[in-house]
Amino acid sequence: MGSYIAKKGGEPRGWHLVDAAGHAPGRLATRIARVLMGKHRPTYTPHVDTGEFVVVINAGKVKFTGNKLEGQRYWRHSGYQGSLKSKTAAEVLATAPEDVMYTAVKKMLPKTKLGRQMVRKLKVYPGAEHPHVAQAPQPLTF
């Protein structure tokens, strides 16, 4: 009996719904990244995208532990000299709360073409409403 190797487009992709309210962003991001990569399935193949879609709601209600709300910084750089900008986690939550979860999950995925393909299956929304009702996402509990 040979080893099973998944092929591109071989299996149907499911949709999962994650409520981020009250969870730590890093711990939640590790579990979401695992589903996006497909490591939760027995058909996981490292060089094929076997993951599923994940919809994250209430991203603005994540809870940072300790002093991370003021101590953790998010950096941006345009590539020009002197253009390095930074914001605290509190500032990012106030302006674009979905960026906290999106960044946390994106940094846990591979830094390759496959990783960029995986992050496209992540949908993050700051509130409880999302436009993916037709896909009937199943709740993902941890």
Which labels suit this protein?
6 strands, globular, 142 residues, four-stranded parallel sheet, 28% helix, Ribosomal Protein L13p, Chain: A, alpha/beta, 5 helices
Give a written overview of the molecule:
This protein is of the alpha/beta class. It has a single domain (15-139), classed as Ribosomal Protein L13p, Chain: A. Helices cover 28% and strands 16% of the residues. The chain has helices at 25-37, 68-71, 89-95, 98-106, 113-119; strands at 15-19, 53-57, 73-76, 85-88, 122-124, 138-139. A hairpin with an 8-residue loop joins β3 (73-76) and β4. The protein is globular, with a radius of gyration of 17 Å. 23% of the residues are buried.
Sequence-ordered SSE layout with sheet pairings:
Elements: E1 15-19, H1 25-37, E2 53-57, H2 68-71, E3 73-76, E4 85-88, H3 89-95, H4 98-106, H5 113-119, E5 122-124, E6 138-139
Parallel strand pairs: 1-2, 1-6, 2-5
Antiparallel strand pairs: 3-4
User: What is the typical, i.e. mean, pLDDT?
Assistant: 94
Work out the helix count: 5
Runs with pLDDT <50, length 5+?
A: none
Shape: globular
Evaluate the radius of gyration: 17 Å
State the strand order across the main sheet.
5-2-1-6
From the coordinates shown, what is the CATH architecture? Answer: Alpha-Beta Complex
| Number of structural domains | 1
Q: Could you name the CATH topology?
A: Ribosomal Protein L13p, Chain: A
Cα separation of the termini? 34 Å
Helix fraction by DSSP (H/I, runs of at least 4): 25-40%
Number of strands: 6
Strand content: 15-25%
Order of helices and strands: EHEHEEHHHEE
The chain-level structural class is alpha/beta
**CATH-wise, what's the superfamily?**
Ribosomal protein L13
CATH class: Alpha Beta
Sketch the major β-sheet: 4 strands, parallel
